[in-house]
Specification:
29% strand, two-stranded parallel sheet, alpha/beta, 213 residues
């Protein structure tokens, strides 16, 4: 991997790999009250990025059913507000100096709901616990939401989705949605590329769900 790409990955991920003795030395320096050294060790404030819901769905179709959108499941590396970079096939890190506006699963859930509202394909859509008399629950899992630096900085979003009946708990339908577009390991460009890929996925999820209810 190029040196410049590796250098922008979160230093915190590398700090955890230091020997205990080195970590203890750094900790003691901070606790000793060395203001100058402490400021050098403190990471710069992270730049915060949001995700946006798609809004272009064409003319509204006949509204069908009501839907509950559950918060997506995700592995711990994705269940965070950090932007993920895949360094190698089996190695991931967080992009230094950047973060999402909220935990990724919660943020994705909010944008999916807004996508359904913008599409106007359903009578009602909301979160669990909001008292909606729903036809089905949309359950999703975030499989990938990353910049793949090992493959030329590809922004990849992959989501599995299941529609589950609220009447009997049975799975109505299941599908996997993927989008890949050219990306970057520069913070702003990485966030924008992932946002575009996510919007493509949400458009497909909305169309698929509306057909299944």
């Amino acid at each position: 991997m190029p040196t410049d790409t590796r250098s922008i990955l979160d230093a915190g991920d590398r700090m955890r790999q230091l020997p205990r003795s080195a970590g203890a030395v750094l900790l003691s320096l901070c606790l000793a009250g060395c203001g100058g050294m402490g400021s050098l060790l403190s990471p710069p404030p992270a730049e915060t990025f949001d995700l946006t819901a798609p809004s272009e769905f064409g003319p509204p179709a006949a509204q069908r059913g009501a839907l509950i959108v559950a918060e997506p499941a995700a592995l711990r590396i994705l269940d965070t507000d950090r932007i993920v970079v895949r360094v190698r096939e089996n190695e991931v890190a967080h992009l230094g100096g950047s973060q999402w506006a909220d935990r990724l699963p919660r943020l994705f859930q909010a944008r999916v709901i807004q996508g359904f509202e913008n599409a106007r394909r359903l009578r009602m859509v909301g979160r669990p616990g909001e008292g909606i008399d729903a036809t089905a629950v949309l359950q999703t899992e975030i499989r990938s939401f990353e910049i793949d630096a090992a493959r030329g900085n590809v922004a990849r979003v992959e989501i599995t989705a299941r529609l589950v009946s609220t009447r009997n708990g049975r799975v109505i339908a299941g599908e996997i949605f993927r989008a890949e577009i050219p990306g970057s390991t520069e913070q702003r460009a990485a966030a924008q590329a992932l946002d575009r890929a996510m919007r493509e996925v949400i458009v497909r999820i909305v169309a698929w769900t509306a057909r299944g209810i």
